[in-house]
Design brief:
α2 runs parallel beside α3, α3 packs parallel to α4 and α7 runs parallel beside α9. The protein has one domain: TIM Barrel (Alpha-Beta Barrel). β5, α7 and β6 form a beta-alpha-beta unit. About 40% of the residues lie in helices and about 15% in strands. Strands 1, 2, 3, 4, 5, 6, 7 and 8 form an 8-stranded parallel sheet that branches. The chain is α/β, with parallel strands linked by helices. Bound molecules: 5'-deoxyadenosine.
Length: about 325
Amino acid sequence: MLADETRRRHVGDAVHLRGLIEISNHCVRECGYCGLRAANRSLKRYRMTADEIMACTAAAVEFGYGTVVLQSGEDDGIRQRWLSDIIRKIKSDTNLAVTLSLGERPDEDLAAWRVAGADRYLLRFETSDPVLYRLIHPPRPGRASDRFAILKKLRELGYEVGSGVMIGIPGQTYGSLADDIEAFRRLDLDMIGVGPYISHPATPLAKHAALRPIPPDQQVPNSELMTYKVVALTRLVRPDANIPSTTALATLNKESGRELGMSRGANVIMPNLTPPQYRILYEIYPSKACLFETAEDCRSRLKNRILAMGRTVGQGPGGRGRP
Ligand code: 5AD
C-alpha cells in the first residue's frame, strides 16, 4: 500500500515499456546461477545480425515502446565498433532510448558506446555480500570483477545507470539482503531490478544447494512473496527510481506476477522482442515467462493488463528525468 502510494506520488501512473532484445547468448563467464555460463555446452549459441536487431527495433517503434534494451551474455564476439554502428543507426533512425545490458565490459567499450548514443546501462550487482558474490561469480582469469566500480564509471560517462539483485540465492541471508536494499539507498541508481533466483539444472548452484553453509532460518526464500516485499522496500528507499516488474517474477506467477509487482511499487515492464527461435535459447533460467508468445501477443496482453489496473502506458523514453 505505502509502496504503491509512493510510486504514484513520485513517478505517477504511467508504466513504461522497454522492448528487450536478447542479441547474443554467448558468454565467457561461469556464473554459478546462470544457464548461459560458458561451461553449459548443451546450449546452442547464437548472435543476432545487425539486420535482425534493426528489425526488432522497428517492431519496438511500431508497438509504441520508448526504449530498446540490448542484452547479452558477456560476449567478446560483440565488438566495440560493430555495436557502436548499430547504436548510431538506432539513434538516427528512431526516437528510441537505447539501454545496454552486456555484462562487464572494458571502460573503452562503455565510453565508445556512450559516444555512439547509448543512454542507459544495466548491470546488476547481484548481491552486495562480497563473500557470496565471489562464490557465485568467478572473475575472468587475470581480471578484476568489481561491479560497483563499473557502476561508478558508467555514471561518470553520463549513462543512466541500473542495477539490482537476485532474491533467494542459495547462501543469501536476510542480513545480506537488507544490505542490498541499503546499497540501493546509497547508490544513486536510476533503475533497480530485483527478481527471484530460479534454479537452472545446468549450473553448479542447482547441484550443490548452497556454496556456503548458513543456518536454514537465515536463508532468504526465492519466493514470490519475498520478491514483492523487496520490490516494495526498494520503492520506499528510492521513491523516484524506475523499477521493473521483472520477467523472473512473472515466471513464478504467470497469471498475475507482473500485475502484483506493479501494484507493489514497480513502474516498468520489459516485454520481449527477441525473435522466437533465439528466445528459447536465451535460457538464463528455465520456463521464462512469455517464452512462446509472439512479440505482438505479448504487447497487446500487457497493454490490456496495464489499462485494467487503472494505469496508463508511458509515452516517450521514460528516463528518470534527473535535473
Ligand atoms: N535466476 C534468476 N535470475 C537470474 N539471472 C541470471 N540467472 C538467473 C537465475 N538463475 C539474472 C541476473 C542477471 C539478469 C540478466 O538475470 O540477475 O543480472
